[in-house]
Write a structure and sequence with these properties.
Length: 133
């Protein structure tokens, strides 16, 4: 499993909002500067977050972005699944039901399940609030 810059930047952006908003909108330009991320690329990441309802946008001279919920309500798993897609280490575990014809005789499936459980155990129990602390 490898997390792309899109996933990492989404987490960094949301963390920055959580740390710096104090109830006021935060401009992308300010976050990009603090996080040393390209404004243009960050705008693309924020667009995905906004469409999914993870952030609210405020227009105008004092505008910017705010979190749509409290930091403890965002799991890293939710953020990564939004930006990266399924986080399963192998395709056969990507769906609820494993439809692989070899599943019944696959010697490596228990290994992949353990790895998947470990990944989920970390990303689905870690929140933005945890990372802020």
């Amino acid at each position: 499993m490898k997390v792309s810059t899109k996933g990492r930047y989404a987490i960094r952006f949301l963390l920055d909002l959580a740390r710096n908003s104090q109830g006021k909108p935060v401009r992308i330009k300010d976050v990009a500067s603090r996080q040393e991320i390209s404004d243009k690329y960050l705008e693309q990441v924020v667009s995905v977050l906004q469409k999914a309802g993870f952030v609210n946008s405020v227009r105008g001279p004092q505008g910017g972005y705010t979190l749509s919920r409290q930091p403890q309500e965002y799991t890293i798993g939710d953020i990564l699944r939004l930006t990266e897609g399924n986080m399963a280490p192998v395709a056969c575990l990507a769906e609820e039901d494993n439809v692989c014809q070899r599943a019944g005789q696959c010697s490596t499936l228990p290994l992949w399940k353990k790895l998947d459980d470990a990944i989920r155990g970390v990303i689905d129990t870690t929140t933005l609030a945890d990372l802020i602390e």
